[in-house]
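Lab notebook page, bench 4
Experiment: in silico fold of construct C2
Operator: M.H.
Input chain length: 127 residues
Purpose: comparison with the prior construct
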Amino acid sequence: MLGLKNAGIEITLVTDAFMKKQNKKFMNKNKTTDVLSFPQINTPPRKAGRPSFFNNRFLGDVLVNLDAVKKQAMVTKTSLSREVLFLITHSLLHLLGYDHAGKAQEKKMQAIERAVFCKLYKSAPRN
């Protein structure tokens, strides 16, 4: 759907305690979070989301905090798998150079995020 060919990511499922340490170490925030993305590629804004820039490359690492995801799934009354898939989708876009720092960037990223997530979620196997 994103036009990528032979691009890779590594996804690691972690605990709240581990995530808090990583968030402090890399983001200088002394609290936990649900997901962290570590892009391998320094993407110029004009190249964000352009498949040819990312093809045949390792995009980066994603840490997903299962403790936080479980809590969010209970609050939003959705499944654990749906929450994990959403966070991976969000993180993948960050690895592709998308950001949500400004309103225009956020709007663009959210539109792509919704489209990708909906397509993935519809095709995902159900438990």
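Observations: The chain has a mean pLDDT of 93. The domain at 8-123 is CATH 3.40.390.30 (Collagenase (Catalytic Domain)).
Next step: discuss at group meeting.
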